[in-house]
Amino acid sequence: MNASLLTGLGLAAKASAADTEGNPANEYRSTFSMDQNQVSLYTHARVEPTKVFHITDTHLSLDDERGVPYREFSARMAAAYTGNSHFQSGETCSAEESFEWTLDRARKGKANFLALTGDIFSFPSEAAVGWVLKQLDATGIPFAYVAGNHDWHYEGMKGSSRELRDTWTTERLAPMYQGNSPLYATYEYNGIRFVCIDNSTYEILPEQLEFFTAQMNSALPMLLLLHIPLYMPGRSMGFGCGHPEWGEQSDRNYEIERREKWPAGGHTQVTLDFYRAVFEAPNLLAVLAGHTHRQSLDIKNGIPQLVSRENASGFYLEVNIQTTG
Ligand SMILES: [Fe+2]
According to CATH, what is the number of the domain 28-323? Predict the structure, then answer.
């Protein structure tokens, strides 16, 4: 099917498409439908009906006295997303109010699983991480979390993106991973595998590619959770993972974000190999991502990439997965 035609219809309109048009038959993927912030994903695999809430880019900046020594690195982002316009009511809401409202929706709607795809935090504040864990725990709903580029970033702090990610995912964000590696993890629920790969530096490491390849052969239907969407022709640099023009020349924000510039040579071969592997994965039902703060849908090789807008405004995507009848 023509993905640009589908996305051109606008997401307010109901879009429904079989994924087999022009694509080889697939034993996992069946159809999907989308209606505003609700998606139905059908699979030929045997799964229990499962309701997933996809939550991304809440941009919490809660802080307390423990964050005082870090203020020179957190001040700009602490001032962002404090007054947001709610995606449904239009009322002004803080990032905390949005997150609480969304979790309340998840609880009342009997969501089975929460997929958190990064930039939940605007910087790795101890107060914010503690608050989120308490909120999540209170729902009693299992969750998976993968970091975004802001979760571990203190602007202007010395070090490469990779070093800073290693430091702050270990020092502050560790409980969010529930004993798993921050770089890659899987969570199984109702016969569905949720695969987290951290691409918040825009790049993929060899061990992440190896891990993902193993999941491709797991014989379980899977959803891939990423922060940065995978490249799609015609999309902006926000779809920066695997983008052929990603690199030093296209980096517009390194000064404002006070971080290492993207590399002159562009992506590594491993990142490009990961990109190819994702869209060849026979058991991949969908990719869930954030980062752009805009809702969008693209389809490549029959695999939908669903990008959700920012939860700072209360947005969430409800993804219902079930076996085709
Ligand atoms: Fe981001």
Answer: 3.30.750.180
Ion ligand 1: residue ranges with CB closer than 5 A: 119, 148-149, 291
- CA 42 / ligand 1 centre spacing (Å): 29
Query: Can you give the pTM of this predicted structure?
Result: 0.92
From ligand 1's centre to the CA of 241, what distance in Å? Answer: 12
State both tokens at 160: 């490469």
Chain segment 80-124, per-residue pLDDT in tens: 999 999 999 999 999 999 999 999 999 999 999 999 999 999 999
- Phi/psi of residue 212, each to 5°? -65, -40
Which amino acid is residue 152, in one-letter code? W
Checking if the pLDDT of 12 tops 90, the result is: no
Rounded Cα gap, residues 89 and 78, in angstroms: 24
CA distances from 231 to 167, 238, 275, 321 (A): 28, 8, 8, 25
